[in-house]
Amino acid sequence: MQKPDILYLQLPLLDTDAHGQRENFPFAAAYLDHALRNSPESGFWQTRIAPESWDELGTPQLAQRILSENPAVLAVTLYLWNIERTLALAEQLKKQRPGLRIVGGGPEAAPGHPLLARAAFDAVVFGEGEAIFPALLTHWRTGEPIDYSNLSLRDSGGWTTGSQPPPPVDLAAAQPSEQALMDCSKNRPVTYIETVRGCPLTCTYCRYHQSHTDLRTLPEETILRRISNLKKLGAREIRFVDPTFNARSHFTDLLRKLAQLNRDCTLSFFAEIRADTLTDEQAGLMGRAGFSEVEIGVQSIDPLVLKKVQRPENTEKTARAVAALRRAGVEVVLDVMYGLPGQHFSDVIASIDWCRNSAPGTKVQCMQTLALPGTVLRGEAGTWAMRFGKQPPYGVEKTGSLSAAEIRKIETRLHEDPELPSDPVTPRFCGERLSGIFKAHHRIRLNQLDAPVPGRANRRAIAVSGTNLFTHREKIGAFIIDAIKSDPHTLWQFILEPESEEPLDLLDFLCGLLRKQPAQFLDRFASAAAFSRTVSRRLYVRTKKGTVSADWKDAADELLRGFFG
User: Fold this and answer.
1) Domains delineated in the chain
2) pLDDT tens figures, 483-506
3) Nearest 5°: phi and psi at 457?
4) Under a CB-based contact definition with an 8 Å cutoff, are residues 18 and 460 in contact?
5) Phi, psi (5° rounding) for residue 475?
6) Predicted structure pTM score
C-alpha cells in the first residue's frame, strides 16, 4: 500500500527585478523533513519538497500542480511577503479538495495574527516546529490527542490552542544533513546554514526573541564539520541565518578555524552581526575567513529612540568595528529605520548621514518600520500615536513624532539619492526599447482580447498591439481587469504597442482602471504608497521607430511615471 504524501511548500517573494535571481531557500522544509525522518512517525509517510520550478508559477497554475501531485498533507512556510498569497492558495486547494490537510508555520505565524483567524488551514504552529510536526502527523493519522501551547488546531467549532509547553528542540540534533541543504540549493545562488538559535537582543519591533527565549549555539566542531562538508559538496556562497552571528562565546576561536578551513578562499560568507561587541581582531579574522559582506543594524543614533525599542547600541564602538571590517576587505551594509517610537525626522537624516560618514563607501539601507503581528511594538502602537497598515507589510505610516509628510520627505530623499539603494527603478515607461520587462512575455492582437489570458507565470508581461487602440479602450481595459482577477497575486506588466500616435486619454483611462484594483504587498510600502504609485501592475508603451514623435513619447512617459513606481 502506497504511503500518503507530504508536500513542503514555500512561496517566493515576488519582486519587480526582472533580472535578479530568487533566493527562495526552503530552509524550514529541510528542518521539518529531518525531524520527521528521525521520528517513529516517518515510516508512515513519504515526503517531497516543492521543486524550484514551481517558484515561477501563478497561483491557479500552482494549485492545479499541487492537486495533480495528490498530497495528503501540505506544509507551508509563512513569511511577511507570501502570507496573503499562501492563504489564497490554501483557500483554492480546500475548495477543490476539502480532505487535504494544510499546516502553516514560519516567521509570520504569530498568536492572534489577524489573517490566520480565517485561514483555510487545519493547523498552525507558532515558533519552533521540529518537535511538533511529527506529533501533529500522528494526531492526524491515529486521532491520538495532542496538546501544545504553540499549536492551534481547527475543527468545526473554530480554532483551539493547546496549553502544555512544547518539547525542547536540541539545535544540533535538529540540523538537516549537508546533502539535504545542498539539495535545497539546486538552481539557487546561496546555501543557508544556522549556527545560533535565539538572540541576545530584545528589540520591540522583532518577534524572534519571543519565539526563541533562550540562546542555543551549535558546537564549534559541528559548525566546522558542516561547512567543510558543504564545501566538498560544491557550496560556494553560504549565508548564516543567525539573527546575531557573533552572539556566541569563543567567537574568535571559531573565526580562526573558519579562516583555516577556507584558506583557499573558495567559500564566500554572509552574516548579520552586532557591531558594538566586535573586536578589531575579530573583524580582521572575518576578512581572512572569507566574509564578503556583513549586515549591521544601526537603526538610529539617538540613544533615547534606541532605549524606547529596547535596543542597546554604542555608535562609537560600531563606527570602529565598521572601519575595521572595511580594512579587512569585508563589505558592510548598515541598516537605518524610520518610524520608530519617539523618532524625529532630524534623527532619521542624522542617522543616514552618520552611517555614510562612518566609513566612506559603506552601503546604507533606510527601511520603514513595520508593526509586525505579535511584536511588542505593535501592542504599544497607541502609546506612540502610531498608525500602521492593517495588511502586510504593516508599514508605520506616521507616529506622534514623525508625520506622514515627513515620511514622504524621507522616501523622496531615498529615491533621489543614487547611493541609497532602493527598489529597481524603471528608466522609461514609453520607448522603442523597454528594460525590466519580465521574461514571461506574451503578445496578442486586438482580435485576441476575448481569448483566455495567456501564460502561467507569476510575473507576467502581456503586450497588446493594433491600430486605433483608443477606440478599443473599453475592450482593452476589460481584458486587463480579467487578467488581474484571474490571479490577483501575480505581478502584471501590460504593454501597449500602438502603430501610430494615440490620444493620451487612452493611457489616462487604463491607468485609472489599474489604480482602482486592490493594492498588493509591494504597493503598500511607503516607497510606493507615499507617492500614490502602483508597483504590482504597470502599464507601458512600446513604440516603433518613426511612428510617434519624441514629444509624444516624452508626454506618455511622464504620464505613466505619475501612476507607477
Assistant:
1) 5-161 (3.40.50.2300), 190-367 (3.20.20.70), 430-561 (no CATH)
2) 999 999 999 999 999 999 999 999
3) -85, 155
4) no
5) -70, -40
6) 0.95
